[in-house]
Amino acid sequence: MIRPIVHDTFFLSRKSAEAGRQDLPIAQDLRDTLEANRDGCVGLAANMIGYRKRIIIVSLGVFDLVMFNPVITEREGPYETQEGCLSLEGMRKTTRYKTVTVRYQDEELRPVLQIYSGFVAQIIQHECDRLDGILI
Predict the structure, then answer these.
(1) To bridge 99 with a disulfide, which of 11, 51, 60, 117 should be the other Cys (CB 3.0-4.6 Å)?
(2) Dihedral angle at the C-alpha atoms of 88, 3, 69, 22, nearest 10 degrees?
């Protein structure tokens, strides 16, 4: 189901809780909402659509990747950039990393450890910040 985008900074600034099996349906809401906003969106965190759970979706171009309970375990190659967000107005300066290693669970809650780089790594960092209540 397409969900409205949350703009309440108090809600967004709270850390998200770990996701479990009962939260699996949130993945479909993230997919539907990302698809509805694809012209200006490349990723979403669950709290951006009203769920305070540690789930994100990232567009990889040909398909979208859902991550449950993502944690960035390593970062390499810092750089400065500016980012926008559907939940917040305007652009914000931030430091990101060219390469990140992420530990997460897939949609069957199997553990995954994967390295991402470039723009995909930037999207993951942005959405993980959202889960941690960081509003950049």
Answers:
(1) 117
(2) 150
**Could you tell me the two tokens for 35?**
């698809």
Provide the annotated active-site residues: 127
> What does the pLDDT look like over 77-100, one tens digit per residue?
999 999 988 888 888 999 999 999
The Cα 96–Cα 59 span in angstroms is: 18
Q: Which token pair is 74?
A: 């390593």
Q: How far apart are CA 46 and CA 54, in angstroms?
A: 7
Question: 94 is written with which tokens?
Answer: 């931030």
Q: Give the C-alpha separation, 109 to 70, whole Å.
A: 11
**Cβ neighbours for 40, distance < 8 A, ≥ 6 positions apart:** 86
Q: Is 10 helix (H, G, I), strand (E, B) or coil?
A: helix
Which 3-state string (H, E, C) describes 122-133? HHHHHHHHHHCC
Over residues 107-130, the pLDDT tens digits come to 999 999 999 999 999 999 999 999
Overall pTM surpassing 0.90 (yes/no): yes
